[in-house]
Structures are given as C-alpha cells and as structure tokens.
From TrEMBL:
This is Cytochrome P450. The keyword Transferase does not apply. PANTHER family: CYTOCHROME P450 (PTHR24305), CYTOCHROME P450 12A4, MITOCHONDRIAL-RELATED (PTHR24305:SF166). It is found in: Membrane.
Amino acid sequence: MPSLTVNATLAGLAITLLVVGKFVVHLISTRWVLRHVPGPRSASLLWGEDWNLYHHSPGSHYLDWHQQFGKVVKFRGACGHQVLSITDERAVAFIVGAEGIYRFPKPDGVRAWFQKTLGEGILWVEGKEAHEKQRRSLAPALTHQSVRNFMSIFYETSGKLAAQWTKLLDNSPSEEVEIEVTNWAGRFALDTVARAAFSYDFNLLSGEPNALAAALDDLTNNENNLSSFYMRSLFLIFPSILSIGKKGEMIRVTKAELGAIARQMWKDAKTTRTDADKTLMEIMCKSPLVNPQPDVHCGGKMHEDEIVSQMRTVLSAGVSFSFMHRSWVLYELATNAPIQEQLRAEISTSPGDPSLDHLNLHYPVLNSVILETLRLHPPILENHHQASETISVPLLDPIPGSSSSQLVIPKGTVLLIPVNVLQTDPEIWGEDAHLFRPERWQNLKGGRNLFAFSDGPRQCIGKRFALNEIKALTATLIRQFSFRCSYDIEAFQSFVIRPRVKGQGGSSLPLLVSRV
Ligand code: HEM
C-alpha cells in the first residue's frame, strides 16, 4: 500500500514537472521569436500587466501602449506569458477573416469558460466544419425577416418596462425618480430574449426578484474584487481554476438552471406543432440540420444536448453581451441633453411603434445614437485568440525598426484585438474620436466600421437582433421619459464593460427619470 502511495506521488510530481517544463519552454521560445515586438516593461513578475489592466479605466492602457509602440504591442500577462495586442488593419482582417479565424481559435481558457457556463454551443465550438454546422442551424432564426417578426416582442417588453417606470413615478411624491437602470436593462434583456427564443416569459419586468436573473448577473459582475481578479488573470493559462471556489459553484448552478429551462422548452417545441415560425427554437427545430424531415417533429441530426447548449448560449449571449449597451445608451442621452431633445423630436414624428424598416431608414438620429454608443462603449473590450500553429500574419505597417510586412506568431501565443483602440483611432474617426458625437454617422464617407460585433465568419450572429431591440426600446422610452444623470459615472472592467458610480463597487447607473 505505501509503495502505491509513493508511486502515485511520483507520478503526480512527474506530470506537474512536465506541465511546468512545457510552459517554461513555451515562454522562452515565444519570447525569442517575438523579441523584436515592442511593448511595456512588466509591472509585476507574477501578474505582468494584468493588475494594471484590471484596476485602471478599461482599455486605457491599450490606448497608451498603441500610441507609444505602434500597431502591434507585446506585454506580459500572469506568470510571464506573452500576449500580443494587435490593431494593424491587415493583421486584424486576416485573424478574424476566413483565412485566419479557424487557425486562431479562442484561447483554451475562454473556451473552458463557455463550456462550463453554457455547454458545447456555438461560442465554444472550434474548427471550420463543426462551427459552420452550428452557425447554419442558428442563422435562419436571426435573419432580417426573423428579426422583423420579433419586433412585436421588442415593443411589448419595452412597453412593460415603460409601464413599470410610470408606476414608480405615480408612487413618487416628486416629479422625478431615481431609477437604477442597469438592473432594469438586465430584466428587459432576459425577458425579451427568452420570449423570442422560446416563447418563455420570465416576467422579470414585473419587478419581482428572480434567482436565475441574479445568478446570470453575478456570474458576469466582477466588482473589481480580488478573487475576480485572480480568476480573470489566471483562467487563460490555467482553465481549471474555473471549477473551484464560490465562482465555480455559481457557474455550475447557473448552467444547470439555464439547461433545465432550455430542455423543457425543447421538449415543448418537439410536441407543439405551429404553422408560423415564431420563436428561435421553432425555427431551429425546422432546420434541415436539426430535423432531416421538416414535416415530422424535431429530432435527428443535432443531439438534444447540442440544442440545449445552443439555446443556453443564445440566452446568455443575448443578455450578457447586450444589456450594458442599453444602459450606456441611456447614460449618453442623460448626459447629452440637446441630443436627447433631438432624438425625442425625431421619434415624435411617428404616431405608433415604427416598423423595423421604418426604424432603420427614417430615424437618422436614433441610428447614430445607437452606433455612437457602441463605438465609445463596446461591451466586449477585447477579442481574444490563440495561435493553433506558428502562423505568419500579413501587416499593413511593418513593426518599427523592421521592414518586414509579415509577423510570425508562435504556436500557443495568446493575442487580443482591443476594440476600444480600433474604434477611437483618430486616423479613422478624426481628432474628436474620444467624444460622443452621433452626427459623425450621418456624414460617413465609408470605410468606418465598428468592431464591437467582431467581423468575419465568427462575427456576432445576433447583431440585427441586438440593434433592432435597442432601437425599439429607446424609441419607446424617449417618447415617455426624460433622463438626467447627477452622478459621476465611470466604466469598469467586468465580463463586459459596466458603468458604476465613481469609486463604488458594484455596477449601477442611477438616472433621474421624469415624464416628458
Ligand atoms: C450589443 C449587443 C451585442 C454585442 C456587442 C455582441 C458582440 C459579439 C461579439 C464580439 C461576438 C464574437 C465573439 C467571438 O467569438 O470572439 C459575438 C458572437 C455571438 N453573439 Fe453577439 N453581441 C451582442 C448581442 C447578441 C445577441 C442579442 C445575441 C443573440 C440573440 C448574440 C448572439 C451571439 C452568438 C450566438 C455569437 C457566436 C457567433 C459565432 O461564434 O459564430 N449576440 N457577439
């Protein structure tokens, strides 16, 4: 027996040494290949730049570094691992485009996060064939026509939110009430996406507490505490950290709860035949990939677990990626009174709820406000990738001191595309790029694209859904309410970029709301 224990200990030691040895060899060889790439000196031996990145205004270091070192910057993350931050247009287009995207998958840690929280759905899947299969099954549910059909849901949930805010004003002795907008934006997002995806009504807009909504929020709300920092910093190199502690338990519980709802909805969709393709689930159900014979009930090519992961993914992406955008739109309107007035005047020209086409074609102020907010407040700050092999990437501008228009990225290197740097580049957006100026979108001469939804074969498949949902909500709210902000609000790094009252912990956006 003792010899068994000794053998097991020796085997454990050997495995640890092997893993550490591989990590060290990787560090040394990567450092050698990337030695000519400029970047900041590491602030800490253990945490590299992670501590600074986490505790300063989101993205501010990326702005400084790219201004100082150019369009390819090297820095160290935790335990000395090298990270490349890339804004070179040609390199970015290559990495996220058809040629690069499957050779630059998501880093193992990011995939582990999606697998543990959502399952093996489209945000987790890698490899051209497997990804395209999942994407084809979802795409019909998020086309222009499908989103057109969801407009009535968008207006209905927007109306419910407006009714709740009216009730708060009715019950207030004052003509103005302070409303914590991020909480309502989360409720709105979950109710809307669940209605569109499954015809399921969480009824969060009733204002009652809801355990699932709270769990989803907790999962992605970091509040700059130490344990969140360790988790965020280490999961890219040691993905197994996601299974431990309070956060690990939270991840398991939320995944199980979302899964139970998705499974029930899947069962209902299999047994309920409808003539109209109403929900995302029904549309997926009729996809030939899911159902080889469209006239029989669902089943067949996609496994039930895959469908459940997919629905969990849509719910989570539809909420977590997008609900802060709603908050930032209201924040920008509250702090830019003339633009708020302009928008209200534009919306008031239409008596009822404008159709999707009408919204997109005849409301230039609304459209520019939505895009300008996404430009200045991209919910996802960095787009992460990892080289699956050693790859030579084309550059528009050679690295300073070099004449080569190619950058060799060693296998295993983690790289990121800082969205805030791309979207505030003065060369593209002008010297006032840091300012909220929606009118810039009305005089566009082409060539200016947002990167907030990424690009290429893996760009956001819910982009149309997200944009039209926020337009319906903004049009509904601006007609009825006026917004002011009396706090100093700052952005902070969480899963997405959230607002909070300056110096306070959790995410919050208290706005003063009154009737128009
Ligand atoms: C403002 C709102 C949103 C933003 C900024 C956003 C942003 C993004 C980004 C950057 C990606 C690429 C992630 C990557 O692989 O690196 C993505 C992917 C995705 N998004 Fe969105 N998203 C938003 C809303 C939505 C909504 C409302 C839905 C669903 C209804 C959705 C569903 C998805 C899905 C399923 C993917 C995976 C696509 C794939 O891998 O092929 N998103 N989103």
